Recover the amino acids of this structure.
């Protein structure tokens, strides 16, 4: 019995290690008080000011703190999402996906903000805005699940998520939403390299359902007022993608049937 439990925990060791680190750091910051937390967040933020000074360590450290102190609320959903990905892709690929989303989206957003400030589209104060958290990495991991979604549902999955992320990024007022869209897209692109022969057991479907809810919370949470627009748009895109795929499959089958008749 104990060996089975230990074996199961070992399969999600990266998820548990990361969740433990987040819990310990959040607890320490809570004990030390809000002033210390603000200093730590400012020091680890991947904003333009820190990156411009060569503080590249923030690219790693920023993934272990949250600016609003919501770590405890985010942990259950995060653990379910990362555990599912680790069960599907194994530990190494989970790390690759999370790192790609966190680092890639951070650097792309930083480059975009720097260009916008230089062109006068954004105020210089944006360079000092805090940018920490786990959302970029988590959304990239969510994007990689595309490879595990059955082919007939994959267009709806991609269309729904990408549309929701883009609507929030365009209609919202927080540059973090743009980072979310970038991270999700990076994860979807990375999923092209992933292959999954695993079956969707009830346990994994439960993890997926919680992971979907967590992903929506990450996307909508930065601009809640956009939810009445973003969610219907995502659902509409998913339905449209499903309809388009069915039309394409029907035409392909019809064409093959026609060729078979001519050959006969």
């Amino acid at each position: 019995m104990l060996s089975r439990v230990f074996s199961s925990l070992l399969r999600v060791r990266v998820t548990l290690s990361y969740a433990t680190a987040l819990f310990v750091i959040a607890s320490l910051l809570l004990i030390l008080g809000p002033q210390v937390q603000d200093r730590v967040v400012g020091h680890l933020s991947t904003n333009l000011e820190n990156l411009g000074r060569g503080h590249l360590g923030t690219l790693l450290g920023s993934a272990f703190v949250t600016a609003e102190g919501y770590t405890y609320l985010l942990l259950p959903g995060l653990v379910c999402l990362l555990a599912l990905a680790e069960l599907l892709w194994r530990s190494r690929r989970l790390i690759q996906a999370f790192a790609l989303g966190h680092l890639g989206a951070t650097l792309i957003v930083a480059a975009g903000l720097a260009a916008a400030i230089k062109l006068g589209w954004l105020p210089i104060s944006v360079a000092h805005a805090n940018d920490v958290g786990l959302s970029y990495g988590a959304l990239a991991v969510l994007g990689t699940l595309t490879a595990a979604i059955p082919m007939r549902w994959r267009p709806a999955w991609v269309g729904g998520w990408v549309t929701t992320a883009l609507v929030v990024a365009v209609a919202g007022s927080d540059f973090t939403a743009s980072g979310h869209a970038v991270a999700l897209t990076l994860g979807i692109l990375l999923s092209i390299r992933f292959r999954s022969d695993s079956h969707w057991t009830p346990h994994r479907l439960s993890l997926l359902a919680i992971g979907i809810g967590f992903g929506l919370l990450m996307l909508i949470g930065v601009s809640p007022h956009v939810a009445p627009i973003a969610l219907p748009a995502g659902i509409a895109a998913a339905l449209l993608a499903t309809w388009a795929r069915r039309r394409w499959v029907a035409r392909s089958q019809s064409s093959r049937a026609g060729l078979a008749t001519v050959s006969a």
About this structure: The mean pLDDT is 89.
